[in-house]
Amino acid sequence: MVLEWYMREKDPSGRSLEETAVEMLAGRDMTVVTAESCTGGLIAGTLINVPGASEVLNESYVTYSNEAKERLVNVNPETLRRYGAVSEQTAREMAEGAARAAGANAALSSTGVAGPGGGTLEKPVGLVYVGCYVNGKTEVKECRFQGSRMENRLHTVEAALELLIEMLNR
Known about the structure:
The chain has helices spanning about 1-5, 15-25, 40-45, 65-75, 75-85, 90-100, 150-170; strands at about 30-35, 55-60, 105-110, 125-135, 135-145. It has about 170 residues and is of the alpha/beta class.
């Protein structure tokens, strides 16, 4: 499954999302950091599949627990109490906090319910928030996936890279 994802078709230019993202970041002399919960480092792992990724990715945080979100990327405990780990607000604070912690001009965050368990009526399996910070601006995208745990994680990586590329293109 994972190997099939890495061997997926590329865009019309012949590049994958991660190749495009690394090329764009390098061309702008920018660095990126990730703060990942439900993807557990898969965004960073995907970026480092690209030769030359070390020019743009210096570090990454896996912030699976709330304590790690607070300690490593400075998510406000009140945000977690009020909105929960799986929320637009938490994804925003994760991206912004990671950028500050790493001194990077771009950051990606992911938080969600990958499944197959852990979902609720309010926050079902497949609900994911992807945050993207670029040069002082942050956007968060809400996603609702309906795959297996691994498929949901892979879809989250794609959504994060697409959001980064979109923001870099502005």
